[in-house]
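Dear colleagues,

As part of the handover before I leave the project, I'm documenting each prediction I ran so the next person doesn't have to rerun anything. This entry is a single chain, and its sequence is reproduced below.
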Amino acid sequence: MRLSSQQIDRQAAEWAFKLESGPLAPEQQAELDAWLEADVRHPGALGKAVACLARIDRIGAIGADGLKRTLKPATFWTRRRMVVGGGATASLLAATVSGVILWNDQEPEEFVTKIGETCTVNLADGSTVTLNTDTKLRVAFRKEARDVQLIRGEAMFHVAKDKRRPFIVTAAETQVRAIGTAFNVQLLPQRPVRILVQEGIVEVSQPNTEGVRRVRAPAGTKAVVAEGSAITTHSVSAVQLERDLAWQHGQLEFNNVTLAMAAEEFARYSGTRITIDPAIANRTITGSYAANDPEGFARTAAAVLDVQFRIEDDEIRISR
């Protein structure tokens, strides 16, 4: 059964408190690892819970006299009720703290991953972003908005709700505007910008000679934005959504993908290139593969498609 976001947030809060109380026992660590792997929403939810705890801990240090008189430093159990209980208390607390601490204009921060690396970053507002391989982005929070520029690569965003300050991701000429949602943005060379919405609704916009195109994309939608072209959207199934986001678990999932396209995808994650004989480039393959194991993919492709492969230096050749 697929859990709701609220149920996942409760589980994440419980894990956040366990982590804060000290090192986990081996069996607890194994349980946490399994929970994080069970749903692509779990890592972001845990990041938000940890960030919420950090905000609560900062209350006692806030410099506004009125807030000091209203809110005393939180005890462990008070903080637990605020985070696990959710609802108005946690929302009011986050809004109050963000207005005092977080929403002064901040110096931009940059986050970068190398080829083959991924990482998850907890942002100051409680949002989380997971960077895919060879990705660079710049984060600049202002009083009016939360601005993120995706300079290259791919990133998954789990956005903390704040109706007063929209969360805006810019990729080339494309802007993706959200308040509280989860979505993936991909900006790769010589490809259109792709947006995949997992939860909530985003507004995708792109300037053109006639003004600005705007399209609203709900959960389960993929938007494709080619330079100078219209914004196209289509629905994706839950299964396809999981396939497209499998990179967060270090996997590439193909469903009747051509060998040429699979080789192009593997090139994003490794210095080892896969070269495909043009005679078989359009043959298709299905399956789940480790993103950092092009040789394992080649072995499987050779067995399934009855083709040959050989390794030469930093190159894998697949041929008839």
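The first strand starts at residue 109 and ends at 112. The longest helix spans residues 5-20.

All the best with the project,
I.
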